[in-house]
Amino acid sequence: MKKRVLVAVSGGIAAYKACDVVRRLQDAGCDVRVAMTEDACRFVGPITFEALSHHPVLTDLFDYPESPNPHIMLAGWADICIIVPATADIMAKVSAGIADDCVSTTVLALQCPCVIAPAMNVHMWQDEATQDNVAHLRERGYGFIMPTSGLLACGDVGEGKLASVEQIVDDVVARLELRRDLAGFKLLVNAGSTHEAIDSVRYIANASSGKMGFAIAEAAADRGAQVVLVAGPCALPTPEGVHRIDVVSAQDMFEACTAAFGDVDAAICSAAVADYTPKAVADHKLKKSVEHIEAIELIETKDILAELCRTKGDRVVVGFAAETNDLIAYAQAKLSRKGADMIVANDVSNPASTFGSDTNLVSLVTADGVEELPLMSKAEVADALLDRVSSLVAGRG
Ligand code: CTP
Prior knowledge:
By secondary structure, this protein is of the alpha/beta class. It folds into 2 domains: 3-176, Flavin prenyltransferase-like (Rossmann fold, 3-Layer(aba) Sandwich); 186-394, Rossmann fold, CATH 3.40.50. It has 15 helices and 21 strands. A hairpin with a 5-residue loop joins strand 6 (148-151) and strand 7. The structure holds cytidine-5'-triphosphate (CTP).
C-alpha cells in the first residue's frame, strides 16, 4: 500500500513550493493529502492542491466532503505529516497545543510522526520565542528540516529560507523508509480467474478473487516497477501506475501474456487459469437439458506459464500452485514440469490463505529449496515475493 503523507500548508510566501513537494512525494510513490490554513489559501488556491493531490483539500473543519470530523480522519489516515512551509505562528500553536484552525487542530490529533519545514523572515526566525518553540517541539519528537540562509522574499538576507524541495522530500522519504528499489524493472503479472463460455450467457470459472495478483502489481508499481497486469474478469480497482489489460478467457489471457512478455524482466503467473474450456460455444442460450450438459466437450487450454517458461531465456518466470493437500510435493513437481524459476505454493484449504482472503500463507519453492513465509497480508506476501524475484533477476544480470 502507498505511504500516506499529509502536507499541512501554513501562510507564507513559500507556500507555492509546497505544490512541488506534493508532486515529488507522489513521484516517490506516496498518496498525498493537503490541509491549508486560511492564510495559506491567500498565497496558493486550494484548487491547485486539489488538482495535484486528487483529493479534497482541508481548509475548513466544518466543510469537508469526506468526513464530518476531517481532523480526526486525516490525522488517523496519515503515515507522516509535513508542515511546509511552517510559519512562526503555526509552530507557536503546535508547541502550545492550540487548536483553533483546521491545520493546528489536525496536527494536535496526529498519531504519526510530524516534520516541520519552517520558512519566515530572519528576525522572526531568530526571535527567542520562535527558537524556544523549535527547541520545545524538538524535545517532543517533532522532526525539523531547518531553513537555510539566503536572500529572503522580504528582501532581508539571513536564515529563514525554506529548505529545498529535494531536501524536504528526501527527508520525508527517508523517514517513511520508502522503497523505489524496482525502478527500471519491467514486470508482467496475470491475475484472477478466466471465464470459459459454454453458451451466450453461461461460463465455467473458479473462485479466484485476483487479490494476490493485484497486490503484486500494486506493490511492484509502488516500488517503481513498470507493470503490465493481465486481469481476468474481476471488479478490483486498477492499482495506480499499473497498465491493466482486461481479458475474459484462457485463450485471451494466453494471447495478452505472450504479447506482453516481450521485454519484461520477470513474469508472475498468479492467475487461476481454467485448465479446460468447452470445445464449442453455443451462440444462443442453451435450454436446460441433460443432453446439452452431457454433450459439452472440454478441451485443454494452452498453458500460459509453461509457454512463458519455454521461451523465457534470461527472464524470471514464477508460477502459483493452489493446493489442498501435499502442497510442497505438488509445487516441486509443478516447478520442474513447467520449467519455472519459482512456484508460490499456497494451501487453499486453510481459511487464512484461501481464495478471496486478505491474508496468505505461502511457501516459495525453487530448485534451491523451500522457504516457508509466515502468515502475512497479501500486500506483505507481494513485497516478500518481489524481493526474491528481483534477486533472481539481479543474479542473471
Ligand atoms: N497456468 C497457466 N495456464 C493454464 C493453467 C495454469 O498459466 N492454462 C498457471 C497458473 O497461472 C499457475 C499455475 O499454472 O501459475 C498453476 O498450475 P496448474 O497446472 O494449473 O495447477 P492446477 O491445475 O491447479 O493443478 P494440477 O495440475 O496439479 O491439478
